[in-house]
Amino acid sequence: MKKYTLILTLILLVGCANYILPTAKELQDEGIVNETSEIQSIIRARNNLTNACLDCHRVTYPQELSKQGWERVLPPMIQKARLGKQAMDDIYFYIDKTMQCVELRKQKELEKQKALEMQQAQSAN
């Protein structure tokens, strides 16, 4: 029973980690962005995603679309919101870094799970 509970918890954690809007600080803490210009780009993009985009629809998490999907839908949305090329570049950058963050968090969670399983196996012996 313990094993099934642990597996279910892992599935929920990894599944929830798929939909995030990380802050610049979170991306910096993960080591994904470091330079001031990158951090400023992330801040601008996240502000646009959480403010301007909400004028027309709910927040769309970067992980909900593929890179190709974003390349198809973003230009008309940027134009409709009257945000400009800088905003589009910032959002593309943010989407890319968010995807990296999701993958990194998944990897860390799986490593934690493996360590926990090994620890449980050792204590069972």
Fold and architecture overview:
The chain is mainly alpha-helical and 125 residues long. It has a domain at 19-101. Helix content is 74%, strand content 0%. It has 5 helices and no strands. The protein has helices at 2-17, 24-29, 36-50, 67-81, 85-124. Helix 1 packs antiparallel against helix 5 (85-124) and helix 4 packs across helix 5. It is elongated and about 65 Å long. The two termini are 18 Å apart. The model is unreliable at 4-17 (pLDDT under 50).
Report the end-to-end length measured between terminal Cα atoms.
Answer: 18 Å
Content-based structural category: mainly alpha
How large is the radius of gyration? 18 Å
Let me know the number of strands: 0
Poorly predicted residue ranges = 4-17
Determine the fraction of residues in helical runs and give it as a percent range. over 70%
What percentage of the residues does DSSP assign to strands (E)? under 5%
Instruction: Output mean pLDDT.
Output: 83
Count the DSSP helices: 5
Order of helices and strands: HHHHH
Described by the principal axes of the CA atoms, the overall outline is elongated
